[in-house]
Fold these 3 entries.
Entry 1:
Amino acid sequence: MNFTEAKTRSENLRKLIERHNRSYYVDANPAISDFEYDLLVKELEAIEKEFPKLQTADSPTQRAGSDINNEFVQIKHKYPMLSLGNTYSENDLNDFDRRIKKVTVDNFEYVCELKFDGISISLTYKNGILQQAVTRGDGEKGDDVTANIRTIRNIPLKLYGDYPEEFEIRGEIFMPRASFERLNKERANAGETLFANPRNATAGTIKLQNSSQVAKRGLDCFLYYLLGENLPHSSHYENLQEAKKWGFPISQNIRKCQTIKQVIDYINYWSEERKKLPYDTDGVVIKINSTEQQEELGFTAKSPRWAIAYKFKAEQAITKLLSIDFQVGRTGAVTPVANLQPVQLAGTTVKRASLHNQEQINILDIRINDMVIVEKGGEIIPKIVGVDKSYRTGNSKEFEYITHCPECGTKLEREESEAKHFCPNENGCYPQITGKIEHFISRKAMAIDGLGIETIELLYKNNLISNVADLYDLKKEQLLPLERIAEKSAENIIKSIENSKNTEFQRVLFAIGIRFVGETTAKKIAEKLHSIDKIMMASSEELLQIDEIGERIAQSIIEYFANQKNKEIIQRLRNAGLQMETKETSVKISDKLKGMSFVVSGTFTLYSRDELKQIIERHGGKNVSAISASTAYLIAGEKSGQTKIEKAKALKVKIINENQFNELINE
Ligand code: IVH
C-alpha cells in the first residue's frame, strides 16, 4: 500500500469505525459483530503504525467509543475506566505471558474470570452506603444512572462487615437470557422493535428515564474490580472474596492460575461450558493478581498492561448463498435477507440470515453463489459476517443492490445518517400499509382484539381498508360476504373497533405509528402537550424540551404532521370519535411566573425534574433548555451542570434552589 492509498483507506476506516461506535455506544444497536469491529480497528492501527503521519489525534484508535447520553448528568470518574486489550488467539496469550515475565521477574499469579457481555458500571460506596453508579461513558466521564442501578436487586444499597470507608467497585450489568426473551416477547406483542441481543437490551434499559421500568426488566450484575486507597488485601482475587462478604455479587467461576497453560485450560473449559450459563459471556479476562505487580506493569494510554481479554469467537458455519430477498417493514425500512443452503448452526438449521444493508454487503464483498460465513452470536437472527473466498468460482455473481421497492416499485431513498434504504411510499406500499394497521390494532396500541393479521390482509385485498381511519368506516354488511367471516365474528370486529374509541390519547398517539415514537415516548409527549393539536403545532424546540426526545424523534414527528395524507387520517380519526387529548388537562394555578423563563438543571429532593417543570407551567412560567440573558432563573439541584452554573453567573441570571423556588410561588 502506498501513502496515498493508505491515506484514503485510513480516512474511510475512521468514518466507518466512528459510525459503528455510534451504533454500538449511543444507539445500542450494533450493525456488525465485535470480531468484525476489532478487525477494522486493527487494520487502521496497522496503517497508522506503518504511516505515523496518518495518525490523527481524534482517530478511533486513540480512544474508545462513548455511551454518553445527554439526558443524564455527567460525572467525571475518579479513576478513568479503561478498556482491555483483546485477542482471539492463543499465540497472543503466550506473547502476553512473555511480556509479563520481562517486567515481573518474581513469581506471579494470574486470575481468570469470565467476561460478562453487558455494560460496565462503576459504583461508589461511602460508609457502606451506595452513593453513585456511573456508566463508562468515554472512560473519563460517564452518565449518572444511580436511580436505575438501585433497582437491580443484587446490587447492595448497604454493606455488611468490615468494609473500607470509601471505595469504588466496578462490574458488569447484564440481562439474563430468560429476562431478555420475556422482554422481546412483550415487545413483539406490542408491535415494538425487538432488541437484537441481551447486551443491547441492557444498554437500552440502563438509559431509560423511568427507573420503575428498569426494575421490571430483570437486570443482573457481577462485580469484578475493587478500587480505592484502603483495600483489605494487596491482591485482586482476595479483595473480591472480601467484597463478597460485604454483600457484593461476585462470580463463583473466578480461578487463580500459576501458568499460562492453566489459563488456556480455563479458556478451553469455558468455551463450551459457558453455553449452559443463564447469561451471555463473550470471553475470559486474565488479570495479574498482585496489586503491587499491577502497578509495576502499569497502563498504556488505553488499557492496563496487567490484564487482557481473550474473546470467544461466535459460533460459525459455512454455507452457500443462494439468493438475496428484500423485506420492507412497516416504517418502510428495507432489509436484505440472504437465502442459504440449509446448514446446522448452534443446534438449529439455518436457512436465512440477515445482511443488514448495502454498505455491509459491499464491505464484505458478498456475491451470489459465494460460500459465506454465518454467525450466531447473541442475536435472534443469524447474520453473515464474511465470505470464504478460497471457494469462489467463476459462477459467483456480483450483486446489484435494488434501487426500487420490491413491493411497490417506488424509488428507494437513503438518508445520509441512516444505513438503511427506505421506501417513501408509506401510504401506497403493501407491507407498510398492512404493517401500520397491524401496529395500530396491537395490544399496547388500540387493542382491537377482534382483528388479526390475516383479517387485516383480507380486508385490504377486498379494498375495504387501506389505512387506519378506514377501520372506523367498516360496516358489518361489508364483512359478511368475505370468506372466513361469520356473523358472530363480524359483530365482534365491529364491536371491538367501536370500543377502541375510548382508548386513552397516549395510546392513540403510539398507535398512529410515527417513526421512532414508541410507547414510552408517546406517553411522555401526551403528558407534556396534552392534545394532538398542540403536538401538530409544536416546534422542534418545544419537542426537544420533552424528556427522551432528541433531534431524530423531533424531526420524525414534524415530518409526520407535515404530510397531508397523515393530517387527513388524523382528521378522520378525530371525526370517528377517537381520543385526541388527555382527559385531565393541566390546570392553571396562577400567573405568578408569567413572562419568566426558567432553566431546570440537576436532581431535586422535593420534586422530579418533570414535576418542577410542570409546576412552572401551571404558574404561567416557561421552560427553556439553554440559559440566555433573558432567562429569569436557573433552578439548580444537586449535580446541576457546571457549565450551566457558570453561564448563569456570567449572564447574571439568578440561581436558586428548590426551596427558594417554593418561596417564589408561595409569595
Ligand atoms: S476487568 C482495568 N473483568 O470487558 C480492568 N472486565 O474491555 C477493567 N468485562 O469494559 C475491566 N467482564 O465492561 C473486567 N470479569 C471482567 C469483565 C470485564 C466483562 C468488560 C468490561 C470492560 C470490557 C473490557
Note: Residues 82-84, 113, 115-116, 120, 172, 224-225, 285, 304, 307, 309 surround 2-(butylsulfanyl)adenosine (CB under 6 Å).
Entry 2:
Amino acid sequence: MLALRFAAVFAAWCPVAAAQTIPINEDEASVPPYTLPDPLIFRSGRPVTNASSWSWRRTELLEQFGDHVYGRTPSGLPRRAATVVSIDRQALGGLATRKIVRVPLTRKDSGPYIDLLVYLPNGARRQVPVFLGYNFDGNHTVTTDPKVPLPRGWVANRPKSGVTDHRATEAARGSAAESWPITRILERGYGLATLYYGDVEPDYDGGWHVGLRGAVARGGTNHVFAPNEWGAIGAWAWGLSRALDYLVTDPGVDGRRVAVIGHSRLGKTALWAGAQDERFALVIANESGEGGAALARRWFGETVWRINTSFPHWFCGRFKDYNNNVSELPVDQHELVALNAPRPVYVASAEEDRWADPRGEFLSLKHADPVYALFGLPGVGVADMPGINEPVGGTLRYHVRSGKHDLTAYDWEQYLDFCDRHLKFPTQ
Ligand code: GCU
C-alpha cells in the first residue's frame, strides 16, 4: 500500500518519464511515507530475540547486501604480505615515524597494489590505535611532506587538485591537508594510515579494466559481471581489509583498535568494509549519503536511480533493478549500520549537504538502535535529529555540522573524542 503511494507521488511529479527517471526531492514536506525492513526479523518471518540469533541474521543481511547492493566479495582472493618500502623516524619535525608500505592485491607484483602511508606518534609507551581511511586524490595530497610519492595511475581532475589530464601532479601536494589534520591526530595519541582509492581501482565506469576487479576476474578484462558480483565500492572495501592485514602486523599499531573512516563515496566504502570485516574496531562514515548511511527508501536528495545512473560502477548490476522501485529492495541502509553491531559507529552530516540527506543519515542510526539494544548498548538514543553542531548518541553517534559537504577539523574533533571513549583503554 505504502509502496503504491510512493510510486504514485513519483508518477505525479513526472508523468511521462516516471519509469526512467526519479526526480530529486529536497523538500521535507514532500517526503512520502515508507516502510523499512525490520533488521530483527529473519526472511523466514522469525524474530531475532537475542545477540546470538542476531549473528545468524547478520549473515543473512550480509548476503542480501552482497546480492542486491554492493555485490558479493569474491572468496579465495590472494592475501600477500606487505613490504615496508621506506621508514623515516623523524617525520613531521620528529613528531612521527612515517612509513610507506606496499600492499599487493593480486599475485602479480606489477599490481594493482596499495601504497599505504602510515604516521605513528613517536614516544608512545604502547601500541597506538589508528585511523585507517582512503583519500580521494593520492597520498601526496594529505600532507606537504615532500617525501610522500605521487600515485602512479589515474587521478580525477577535481577543481582543487590542479590536475588536468588524470596524472597526479606536484601542484596537488598538500591540497587535502585540511581534511587530514595529521599533527592533531598524532598529538591525541593516534596513528593515521591513509591510502589512495585509485590504487585499488580508478573511479570511472570501466575503471575495473585497469583495477583490482579486472585483475582477478575469471574472464580478465573481457569478464561479464553477474548481477551480484562486486562493484567498485566492494573492491575498495576489500582494499581496506588488506591494509588492515598489514596494520595488525605493525609492531607500533594496536590491531584491535583500528577505526575505519571515510568521507562521501569513501564513507559508503567504510561502512561496507566495517560490515564485512569485524576486525575494524569502529566505523566512521562522514557524509556518506545515498548508498552509505542515508536511507534508500527516503525520497530526499540523491536517489537509487540517480546514483546508479551517475556512478553505474559503484554497486552491483542487480542494484539497478531497484532504480524505480526502491521499496522492493530487501534491505535498507539502517541494516548496513546494524551489521557493525556491537561496534561503535559514528555517522555525520553537514547542514548544507542536502544531497546526502542528513535526516536520512540520522534515521539510519536511529533504526539501528534496536540491534544495539540486543547487546545492551546505548544506540543514538534520541527521538529526533539534534540541532546543528550538537553531537548525540552513545555507541551510535551522530552530528550534523554547519557548512557544506566536506571532512573538516570539527568532524575530526568529534571522531577523536568518540575514539577516546571507545578505543582507548582506561589505563592509557
Ligand atoms: C557525488 C555522489 C555521492 C557521493 C559524492 C562523493 O555527489 O552523488 O553519492 O557521496 O559524489 O563521493 O563525493
Note: Residues 50 and 374 are 6 Å apart (CA to CA).
Entry 3:
Amino acid sequence: MRATDPRQISLFEPDRQEETIGPGAKLLPEFAQAQADDILAAIEAVAAAAPFRHLTVPSGHAMSVAITNCGAAGWISDRHGYRYEPADPDCGLAWPAMPRVFRDLAQRAATASGYNAFDPNACLINRYVPGARMGLHQDKDEAILTAPIVSVSLGLPAIFLWGGLARTDKVHRLPLWHGDVLVWGGPSRIAYHGVDPLKDGDHPLTGALRYNLTFRRAF
Ligand code: MD6
Ligand code: FE
C-alpha cells in the first residue's frame, strides 16, 4: 500500500486505481461518485425520520460521530453495549427502509469485489464534523460474519486507519475521498480499523461534513 503523508490530504482526490488493501479487502476509488447527489438526498430523507444522534458507549462517553440507520436492523450503542435493534430506541418505530439507491450501490460494489449476492439488511450512517474521529475497533456485532461490509465515503476526505487482526498490529493510513467505496470481507472482516480526527474543510456537496455509510448483513 502507498505511504501517504496525511499533511498533504486535499479536498480533491488524485487519480487512483482499484487496490487490494488486504486479503478480501478492496478500495474502489470514486465508485459511488455518480450516485452521490441521490445518496445525499436519501441520507436527508432517512435523517428526517430517524435523526442523527450521538450515542453513548459502554464507558459512558458520547461518540464524537453522530449516527443514524436504515434497513431492517440498526446498530446502536448505550451503557449496556453494542447491538442491532429493529426499531429506533428514540421513538420506538422501525428504522426507515433502506433506499433503493443505497441497496443497488452496495450490491454492485460487493459484486465488483468478488462477493456475489450480497444482501445487506443494515445500513449505519456516520456523520463527522471537523475533529470527530473513530477509535480503533473491530466490527463483530453482526451474527453473520461471512458477508462482507461495504463502506461508502462522501464529503470531506478522511484518513482511514487500517490495522490487522490484533490491536497491536501495525496500522496503515489510507486516505478516503468523496465517492470512495471500501469492500471488506473474508480474512479482513474483523480487522481493527478507525478514522483519524476529521480535518476542517468545505466540500462542494456536504460543506464541513463527512458521511460514511456501512452496509452489513446483521442477522
Ligand atoms: C468510517 N467506518 O469510515 C467508519 N467499519 O467512518 C467503519 O467503521 C468501517 O468503513 C467496517 C468496515 C468498513 C468501515
Ligand atoms: Fe467499523
Note: The pocket of MD6 (ligand 1) is lined by residues 126, 134, 139, 149, 151, 160, 182, 184, 193, 195, 212, 214 (CB under 6 Å).
